[in-house]
Amino acid sequence: xxxxxxxxxxxxxxxxxxxxxxxxxxxxxxxxxxxxxxxxxxxxxxxxxxxxxxxxxxxxxxxxxxxxxxxxxxxxxxxxxxxxxxxxxxxxxxxxxxxxxxxxxxxxxxxxxxxxxxxxxxxxxxxxxxxxxxxxxxxxxxxxxxxxxxxxxxxxxxxxxxxxxxxxxxxxxxxxxxxxxxxxxxxxxxxxxxxxxxxxxxxxxxxxxxxxxxxxxxxxxxxxxxxxxxxxxxxxxxxx
Length: 240
Prior knowledge:
alpha+beta
């Protein structure tokens, strides 16, 4: 029968035991400093929502198409070189058959979709301004239900928006929120749809975690009336 062998006490330094070299201690010190520095860098990147390869926090929108009758549609983005993820595959653009209820069929794969998705880097980060909203974490859902109706999302679109963003925003003590203008969104990624829609609704939420509330002027929210061929996009991006 064998038994585990327990190690004895460590050797005590003595005349016959070589002392650790100073070089080893210096190496360990340098390694410790390097690990600490990497930890600080990781913390900053996570806090800012940035990535050294793609720059500021990316936008992450979905796109819905609602023609009045079945319609072949091509959707393209300016600055497609900034895309970091997309579904289905973007290629030279998305080519789909769109149905009035929003159902899409990708011509390349034949797969049925309910929306198009992309993640795209931006050259400059979103900025906090003196207008917008400051929302307590516990009131996030109530605020989004109101705001998304004001900017023109349907109940289903708003529901999908809230399901995605609520778990993130409600954990903040407060959240600064502002919705970008169409011109601001076009500077990041212009949405080019062929044939051209009668109505284009783009909702891009810039947000920033706040530990304490700040004073802002309430942003005025408006939405166009839906008619004819309607294209809707929603997304969000973090302000560092």
